[in-house]
Specification:
It contains 6 helices and 7 strands. Helix 5 packs across helix 6. The N and C termini lie far apart (40 Å). The radius of gyration is 16 Å and the shape is globular. It is α/β, with parallel strands linked by helices. Helix content is 31%, strand content 27%. It has a single domain, classed as Vaccinia Virus protein VP39 (Rossmann fold, 3-Layer(aba) Sandwich), CATH 3.40.50.150. Strands 3-2-1-4-5-7-6 form a 7-stranded mixed β-sheet, sandwiched between helices. Strand 4, helix 5 and strand 5 form a beta-alpha-beta unit.
Length: 197
C-alpha cells in the first residue's frame, strides 16, 4: 500500500543522513529550555513505566530517564537511536526501539506517555490510531504529556490541529489537566480516567 504521508521513515533517514541533529536538539538553548519546562510539568516525581514516542537522538530521554523506573523510547530512525543508546548507556532501565507509531507500538500499560514534537507528522488516520493506542496503553490515572511547536512548519498538521484532533478522538477517556502556550510551543497534560470495574 502506498504511503500518502510524505513523512515516512525513509524521509527521516535521509534527513539525519544529511545532518545528525537537524533540529539542534543537542545545542539549541530554546530546546534545552523547552526540555526543562517539559520535565518541570511532569505530575509526579517518578514513574513506574514510561514511554517516549519520537525520542530521536535521546537529548530529552537522558534527562527523563532518572525520573522513571523503566523507560521505553521509540523512534522511526534506527541510525539516530544509536545516539540515544550511547547517550543513555549507563541507564540500564532505558530501552530504545525502532517503531513507527501507531503502526508499531510497545505493549502497555504506561503511567506516562510523552509525545514531544511528533503529532504534527501524523495524518488523520495516524491520529485515529494513536488515540486508540493512548486509550488502551495508558493505565488508569496515568498521564499523557504533549509538547509541540506552534509556528508554521509545513507538516501534515499544525500543533493545534494535531493536539485538538487527538483530544477530540480520546474523548471522555482523558481529562485535560493543563494547557500552556509558552513562546513558540504548547504543552498539554492529560490524565486517563479510571475505568469502572
Amino acid at each position: 500500500m502506498q504511503d500518502e504521508n510524505p513523512f515516512t521513515p525513509e524521509y527521516f533517514e535521509q534527513l539525519y543522513a544529511s545532518d545528525p541533529d537537524p533540529w539542534d536538539f543537542e545545542t539549541s538553548e530554546y530546546e534545552r529550555a523547552k526540555y526543562r519546562h517539559t520535565l518541570s510539568e511532569l505530575p509526579h516525581p517518578r514513574f513506574r513505566r514510561a514511554l517516549e514516542v519520537g525520542c530521536a537522538n535521546g537529548a530529552l530521554t537522558v534527562d527523563l530517564a532518572p525520573r522513571c523506573d523503566r523507560l521505553i523510547a521509540v523512534d522511526v530512525v534506527e541510525s539516530v537511536l544509536k545516539r540515544g543508546r550511547d547517550r543513555c548507556a549507563d541507564q540500564r532501565h532505558v530501552e530504545f526501539h525502532n517503531m513507527r507509531v501507531p503502526r508499531q507500538t510497545p505493549d502497555g500499560p504506561f503511567d506516562l506517555i510523552l509525545l514531544s514534537e511528533v503529532a504534527c507528522y501524523w495524518d488523520d488516520a495516524d491520529l485515529a490510531g494513536v488515540a486508540q493506542y493512548l486509550c488502551r496503553a495508558t493505565e488508569d490515572d496515568g498521564h499523557v504529556l504533549l509538547v509541540h511547536y506552534t509556528e508554521e512548519t509545513g507538516y501534515p498538521k499544525t500543533a493545534d490541529e494535531a493536539v485538538e484532533t487527538l483530544r477530540d478522538l480520546v474523548g471522555n477517556h482523558f481529562n485535560t489537566l493543563k494547557t500552556e502556550r509558552p513562546l513558540h510551543y504548547r504543552l498539554d497534560l492529560w490524565q486517563r480516567v479510571a475505568q469502572s470495574r
